[in-house]
Amino acid sequence: MAGTARDIVTPHLEAAIAEAEAAKYDADVVGRLFLEKAIQLFRTVRSNEDIAAELISSAENIDPDGDYMFMRP
């Protein structure tokens, strides 16, 4: 059994980063392309508004040490 979806995706992302770096591409390029492909995947089942809300929420909570907007003081 593969485990979680994260367990399935993570090794593929790590392999893509390693392959891209070996070909002299920055990991940032891989990230942008994964984001592009994720948005294409989202569009098969989600509305543009829902996708935008997901991206905005991710951007607003980008600091791993920051408090999330829904957290109480």
Coarse morphology: globular
Q: How many alpha or pi helices?
A: 3
Instruction: Report the average pLDDT across residues.
Output: 90
The percent of residues in helical segments reads 55-70%
Report the β-strand fraction as a percent range.
under 5%
Number of strands: 0
Radius of gyration: 15 Å
Number of individual domains: 1
Helices and strands: which structural class?
A: mainly alpha
Chain oligomer state: single chain
Largest sheet: none
Order of helices and strands: HHH
Q: pLDDT below 50 for ≥5 consecutive residues: which ranges? A: none
Rounded to the nearest angstrom, the distance between the terminal CA atoms is 40 Å
Protein name: Conserved protein
Could you please describe the fold and organization of this structure?
With about 70 residues, the protein is mainly alpha-helical. The protein has one domain (about 5-60). Helix content is about 65%, strand content about 0%. The protein is built from three helices and no strands. Helix 1 (about 5-20) crosses helix 2 (about 25-45). The chain is globular.
